[in-house]
Structure of Odorant receptor:
Amino acid sequence: MDSAQYEYLRLNKYLLFTIGIWPYQTTLQRSLVAIVFIPIIVAQVILQGGGMVTAITANDIDSLLEGFAPFMISLMCLAKYINFFYNFKQMKRLLDIMREDWEIYKKLRIEYDLLSEQYAIGKKITISFVAFLFGLITPFAAMPLLLNAADALGLCNISDDRPLAFRVEHFVDVDKYYFPLLVHSYIGTLAYTTIVLAINSIIAVYVLHESGLCEILRFKLENFVESDVMDVKLHANKRDDKWYQNARDCVLLHEHIIEFANILEDANTTSYLLQIGFNMICVSFTQFQAVINVQENAALAFRYISVTISLLCDLLFVSWPGQQLSDSTERIFEFTTNGKWYLSSINCRKLLMMMLSKSITPLKLTAYKFYTLNLESFSAVARTSFSYTMVLCSVQ
């Protein structure tokens, strides 16, 4: 990978490397990370699931409701992680294409600047998302630690109800294994958060690379006819027609853009369906927990508010790349018609007509074709989850 391109993707590489799915890791490196990482995340989901099942058998509805959202969040994160593993070759292929494109356009000043501009946006978004999400989960993760510190200082007594990030008291002897469980819950929460950050941010970078290609296509379409001379040879020989060769390059680039988007869609469409479903359920329950605890336990309510905001941010960050892809490809039709096609040959116009027919409908990311990822759908899901929360509150 070119050093300039690597600088833009450095943080993405570190995040993916940490969880063992950076496409250019060696098999040994990936195996060593998996030996440590996978048992941590699997153990957490087993503890959460076991805690819920045993809460049902113990008829402890409060523990069940409190543990439901963290369990569903873990399943949502696992859906992201397993999907990346399952479609690893496609994810690597996308990065390979990015490397190949960079090598081509770094030799062309204007095209390189257009592509670099999108990579710079991707870097800023990744840094902002990391800082923002870690900041949001801090209240949820810090509460058990603060209560233990207060207990040690004699400010409160938590011996009867020792706090953890999630409820497992009916599944494991909390008094006996409290500190191992506490440490594991922090490590597990950090691991799942890293999964969300790593995978969401690399998909955003994939889409921004696509946006860069669309900007390059715009520039090429604006300048594929390099003259304003009205004396047009309508039936020029293809080999001698420079404008035809330029238009052909535009058509090939458009096909390349479509291929890249199709790989991205095929690799993630099933995972998106699971993620959206889990996210909607989780947001409904975390909002419900915040509402029912806001008067009796403000600290717990604040924890769930922070988790709700984190989930909505995850949904937004899943939806935004779809919106960006649609916006970038929607304008290709406009770029094509705004060019100097009227100064080109008949053969050249036929090529552009082919491109127009394929650019009428913008490219999009979907959740198994049932749900289109964009900001409008994000708003609809957020409203629906709020409605479910009201239903839960009414039947409490």
Summary: The beta strands are 366-367, 371-372.
